[in-house]
What we know:
The chain is an alpha/beta fold. Helices cover 32% and strands 28% of the residues. The protein has 2 domains: 6-155 and 270-354, Aminopeptidase (3-Layer(aba) Sandwich), CATH 3.40.630.10; 157-268, Alpha-Beta Plaits (2-Layer Sandwich), CATH 3.30.70.360. It has helices spanning 6-17, 26-38, 89-103, 126-131, 179-195, 240-252, 278-289, 305-312, 336-354; strands at residues 42-45, 51-55, 60-67, 78-80, 83-85, 110-117, 139-143, 150-155, 157-168, 208-219, 223-234, 259-268, 271-272, 295-299, 316-319, 333-335. The strands form 4 sheets. The protein has a 6-stranded mixed sheet with strand order 1-2-6-3-7-15. A 4-stranded antiparallel sheet has the order 10-11-9-12, with helices on one face. A 3-stranded antiparallel sheet has the order 4-5-16. A hairpin with a 2-residue loop joins β4 (78-80) and β5. The two termini are 20 Å apart. The mean pLDDT is 95.
Amino acid sequence: xxxxxxxxxxxxxxxxxxxxxxxxxxxxxxxxxxxxxxxxxxxxxxxxxxxxxxxxxxxxxxxxxxxxxxxxxxxxxxxxxxxxxxxxxxxxxxxxxxxxxxxxxxxxxxxxxxxxxxxxxxxxxxxxxxxxxxxxxxxxxxxxxxxxxxxxxxxxxxxxxxxxxxxxxxxxxxxxxxxxxxxxxxxxxxxxxxxxxxxxxxxxxxxxxxxxxxxxxxxxxxxxxxxxxxxxxxxxxxxxxxxxxxxxxxxxxxxxxxxxxxxxxxxxxxxxxxxxxxxxxxxxxxxxxxxxxxxxxxxxxxxxxxxxxxxxxxxxxxxxxxxxxxxxxxxxxxxxxxxxxxxxxxxxxxxxxxxxxx
Length: 358
């Protein structure tokens, strides 16, 4: 590495410094559009509120899409010991800034579209869903932390359900279970059914079912209520629809006193892409040129790949600098040396898009 340029450092630092909690991304979007315009991109805000920049011309179209929104939690932005610290540094403003830095120098024959997508951290994923309605590119890279020397080729799916329990209010000394106890009894039935689906499996192959939130003992004096939020992480081979149907069947068959309702909050299907595509091979070559040995990862979380892979069916990986163990934590930080290496890798990938014989 020859050293990170001041402009590329300020690009990532400045982007991280602007708060952009999901559904409140407007200031960061406008800032990024302005920075891309200064770098020669044809930049604008699309109908979904995404920051979009296009550069270069030619028959090969490459989309680099990273999300610009973050989870809540303010972390003072600073650089310490070669690391940029701040909310979004890893997930996923670091990868997004690396996209812009890498694409600033156009590659002959390649048209690159950068998308700073909104609402990835919300169930809506409005930014990616809007882009999915557009024609597919030749290649797509999703901006998520994979480490500079790795690319992600698979994500589990996700299903989030809210279960509501309601019954006539009772005196606290009345016999029988409370509405909260009824809710937890049903939760145990749902978890047991999930455990039967992938017995003995671990890691990426395992269906994860978790009680994400519970609220009980709520009453207005007439009706007593409880609510559960249940979250699934879904491996390939299982659909969100069959899991939702299973929960609804269990709820219908429940013999307690409470009336049970089931509401779907959001879902995405599992996504897996081949590691043998020209895009994946371009990352192997680009990582090797930067001094690394490429690996491919599968992840238990979700990303905008879950939305775009089935919609576009083009070669696709997720890539970006940063260690995902810092995602959503109070210690979110990005090693600037890895940011620099990722820019070099991405430049090599774009050059290979323009000349596959490199």
